[in-house]
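fyi for ur records
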Amino acid sequence: MKTSVKCGFQPLVVFVVFLMMGSEARSADSVLESTLLRAKNEKPSVRVLGEIFSVLTNAPTAAIRDEALKACGAGLLYLGKADYYERKILPSMKDSEKFETSMIKTCGICNGTKHVMKECLACKGLGKCSAFRCDNGIMHSPSFNGKVEDHPCSKCLGTGICDQCKSTRQMEVSCNACRGKGMAFSPDAALAVYRAQIGRSLKLFLDISAAKTKDPNWGATEEVK
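which gave:
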């Protein structure tokens, strides 16, 4: 009796183990796909990006791995995690310059002019001459005999207006947002790139499924063009 139970149990164990091994083999690349599907409906977060990055080795093709890697990169830059991007993503990325350029847009602060208008520092936004004792262009200076002598202000040449902003109360300064370049990193562009890369990765998974349906002998190591 014991022998029959033992003999019946062993094949069952082997069968279950076989199913588990087969399931693991079949689902290795689907882990990445399911992770990308979840990420598709969420904004980037450190948790989501970490999940994608941790299963990149399960990518069935190099093309999917590259696209998903770029998704991680764009997500990190969107979150302001440039240090993580440089350490974890950049070393393995292809065409990194083109990738980064895709997230550089016209500066939204200066609109590409490289300069912005700020309150004049010389007159503190008053538009008047900042010289001491200047009264609408006239200097009232005490003399040695105790009298006050009036003469045109040498700073504003008697005009009474600020010699820096010319009474506009503002002055043009280099844009800090883009460091005077007129172009700057755009979080909105990074988010768009992130979503596009997720979409490209999932599209390649669909292409693989279509290729396998068409040709059962299609190898997982083949690249889908």
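The radius of gyration is 34 Å. thats all i got for now
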